[in-house]
Design a protein that fits this description.
Elements (H helix, E strand, L loop, with lengths): L6 E2 L2 E4 L7 H14 L5 E7 L2 E7 L2 E3 L4 E2 L6 E2 L4 H14 L9 H4 L11 H6 L11 H6 L7 H8 L16 H15 L3 H13 L20 E4 L4 E3 L5 H8 L2 E2 L1 H12 L6 H7 L12 E3 L6 E8 L2 E8 L4 E7 L6 H12 L5 E4 L8 H6 L2 E6 L2 E8 L2 E6 L4 E3 L1 E4 L2 E3 L6 E6 L5 E8 L2 E7 L2
Antiparallel strand pairs: 2-15, 3-4, 3-14, 5-6, 7-10, 8-9, 11-12, 12-13, 13-14, 16-17, 16-24, 17-18, 18-19, 20-21, 21-22, 22-23, 23-24
Length: about 450
């Protein structure tokens, strides 16, 4: 699913360590992120069949003070997509469908369905509107059960973002359609097919779909944020809404079985796996992101859903698997993964350090009060409460902003930075939100 708009920021301190084993370095790294509330979950790191780290960090439930352990169960959001794509490839191997099949074969009345292929759905090149971009729907309907008709109504009649195949744009709608196509072809539920084709053969016994109704003492509680002061619990997205784009829950141990299953060609043939691992537009394969910039091929994917964040990264050449599952919805895991790779390949790495805050006068803070519009349906309200600048985006919790410079702020609870931009007369005209390498402007409307 889509990532949350606000996330935690920190600087880093270069370190030089001598005499530490890789296990000790990995443990030190994850502990450092955990102390800054940057990682709260479980980590499993293996190389050549040897477990280097298998540990829980922080709380699976803040209120009851129950700790995360290796067996804690998390939602994994968009990592679900690689399971969906594998089922599609399995059906293609069995000649139940073709990747060149038109969407119109399965949905004759889908607008421009004769121009969209299963390949386009797999690679996010269909141009179909991403339903999780509908802020109002996600705010009011995501927690409710939804059937196929209701979900199709969210995106089916939206104008395509571009001519199919010409560009890349991440679309959960495309993977939702793949799930429905799987049901049409197999004549059984998507969930039953995944269990039959993948979970059961690989003995992924702690994996499933309906997290809302899961009754298991190892189930983690999802949070928008966890800080030293407080925590904000997240509502759970119904599995019928996240579906084939992001409904799976699992453990690190089960995902390691998934890694081994891929490595051993247990589910689909190696030729199919290589198709999935081929980077098409924007380095995206079939449910995997492929990093071909280094001499070794890294296959990876993250997943974010209300209250949860996950990442899996693999280097088959060296039998490396990095699995990070987090029950706080901030996407810092890609950065942690990069640091882990640095340790595994004996490269320089850095430990995180909290950012310093400076004091700003109330006169300056009051200048920033107002409504800032990213798009008509997504706005950011900025106010001053008890001398503290706070911001609240549409459909999201309220967060405190801490000054790094007079017009530049960071968040402690989630990873984001905010810059306020003024005109020549000193009037604030817009803010710029910095998140995950993206720069998002928001015009001040009042």
């Amino acid at each position: 699913m889509q990532k949350k708009i606000l996330i935690i920021v920190f600087t880093v301190l270069t370190i030089s360590v001598f005499g530490q084993t890789k296990q000790e370095k990995l443990s030190e790294l994850l502990n450092a992120y955990n102390k800054l509330n940057e990682f709260n979950g479980t980590a499993l790191i293996t190389q050549n069949g040897i477990t280097l780290l298998d540990k829980g960090y922080g709380y699976k439930n803040v209120e009851t003070k129950e700790s995360n352990i290796p067996n804690t169960i998390f939602q994994i959001g968009s990592i679900t997509k690689q399971f969906t794509s594998t089922i599609i490839l399995k059906l293609a191997e069995r000649k139940k469908l073709k990747l060149t099949d038109k969407l119109s074969k399965y949905y004759p009345d889908f607008p421009q369905g004769n121009e969209i292929t299963i390949f386009n759905l797999l690679t996010h090149t269909s141009g179909i509107y991403n339903y999780t971009n509908d802020v109002e729907f996600m705010k009011s309907e995501a927690v409710k059960p939804a059937n196929e008709k209701k979900m199709l109504a969210v995106f089916k009649n939206k104008k395509l973002d571009f001519t199919p195949g010409s560009q890349y744009s991440y679309s959960n709608s495309g993977y939702m359609l793949l799930g429905y196509i799987i049901q049409k072809v197999t004549k059984q539920s998507y969930e039953k097919t995944v269990r039959e084709y993948i979970f059961k053969p690989l003995k992924m016994n702690n994996s499933g779909f309906d997290f809302v109704n899961l009754n298991n003492t190892n189930k983690a509680t999802g949070y928008f944020t966890i800080t030293d002061k407080n925590s904000i619990k997240a509502a759970l997205v119904d599995s019928s809404v996240s579906f084939a784009a992001g409904a799976i829950y699992t453990t690190t141990a089960d995902l390691l079985k998934w890694h081994i299953g891929i490595l051993n060609n247990s589910i689909v043939k190696r030729t199919s796996i290589e198709k999935a691992f081929t980077p098409y537009k924007n380095r995206y394969g079939y449910g995997w992101i492929i990093d071909s910039t280094s001499t070794k091929r890294i296959t990876t994917h993250g997943g974010g859903i209300f209250g949860f964040n996950a990442n899996i990264a693999r280097v088959e050449q060296d039998d490396i698997c990095i699995i990070l599952l987090n029950n706080v919805g901030n996407p810092k895991l890609e950065d942690i993964t990069k640091d882990i790779f640095s340790i595994l390949y004996d490269k320089p790495y850095k430990l995180p350090e909290s950012k310093a805050e400076i004091k700003i006068s109330s006169e300056i803070l009051n200048k920033y009060i107002g409504t800032y519009e990213v798009m008509p349906e997504f706005k950011i309200e900025v106010n001053v409460e008890n001398g503290q600048l706070v911001a609240q985006a549409t459909g999201q919790p309220k967060f405190e902003l801490f000054a790094q410079k007079e017009n530049y702020f960071f968040l402690k609870a989630v990873e984001a930075e905010v810059e306020f931009v003024s005109n020549d007369k000193g009037a604030v005209e817009q803010l710029i939100l910095y998140q995950g390498g993206r720069k998002t402007p928001a015009k001040k409307t009042k």
